[in-house]
Amino acid sequence: MKTTLLVLIDWAQEDLLRPVLILLCAMLLFNLPTLLYKARLFIRAILYFIGCWDKSWSKPQDPGSIFGPHLSQGLPVERRTIYFVRHGESTWNDTFNKGKHRSTVVFILGFIPGLIKALLHELYLLLSGKLDSWFYDAPLSPLGLSQVDELRSFLLDTKNLTGTDAEHLKILRADPGAPRSTILCSNLRRSISTLVGGFSERLTRRPEDKILLVTALQEISRNPDTLSITPPHSPVHASWMEKRSPMCDYSRLLSSQVDVSLHVGDKPINTNGLKRMLDFCDFVFSPSVKDEYIIVGGHSIWFRSFFNMFLPFSVHHVAKNKKIVNGGIVTFDLLKAETKRGPKYMVDPKTIKVIYGGF
């Protein structure tokens, strides 16, 4: 009797498993282009994780030692006002980072269930043929979307703001009579979506405004969430959560007001964060950027590294040690001086100011 029961169980398992496997194979073959593209992404993620040197570079010369004599001698210095806007929380952060919104105990207890949820969602996206991912170029999480909505509300609120705060807000919103500003962004979806959602009122009111994607702003890390899922010069697509968001019409704004002309694809394996930071500095002072005020959508490690490299080394500032909070905005002046060794850059420490959120 026992043997017969075991045989029946084996038969039932095999009988149930076979159609499931056939269905899975059929779904994968039906979505073969997406499967192949995601396979390439997976291979690239492994190669990048193993072989990249993104966080490895030699410390440059102290900007303070360059600009101190330069400024004291009255030599010409160019200046741009920069607004760093950090993205909202991503799905990768939701799975792997504790964050400030939950305790260590809650994070530990929820980690395995959260990881299983993320893996199952990734499988669903693969089988349904969607060019989307929970892990690769991670989009905004539900919490991230709420943080972006709070940023949007802040930019719309003009109460109790006077002096320089009001002037900064006018520039960020592109109010009538405010100085013109250029919007630049990392080519990673969470940063793009943060600017699209947070600045949706400005973008809707000013359809001529574009968010220009700049690969130099791509996050400094070896993790797959810092690799771009969007092919070069291709439209950025809203994630499954953004399509359901009542905050704004993400699909329309992403397709109409994100400029992908400079999106040349992923950061190369043989690059590093300092090279991209210097490329960014060169770009904002180039003839391509005509405005003095630059809004920059980007990432915590990139921003913190930037302050470490371009603030005078003798200056002790919280920006060197702490991340800008999700959805936060910090402004400062970036200086450029021409030297015998080429252009050099420095963050003016006296001009650093928190506009929203802080560190």
UniProtKB/TrEMBL annotation:
The chain crosses the membrane at residues 20-37, 105-127. Keywords: Membrane, Transmembrane, Transmembrane helix. Coiled coil: none annotated. Gene3D superfamilies: Phosphoglycerate mutase-like. GO terms for molecular function: phosphatase activity. One of its GO terms (cellular component) is cytosol. This is Uncharacterized protein. It comes from Fistulifera solaris.
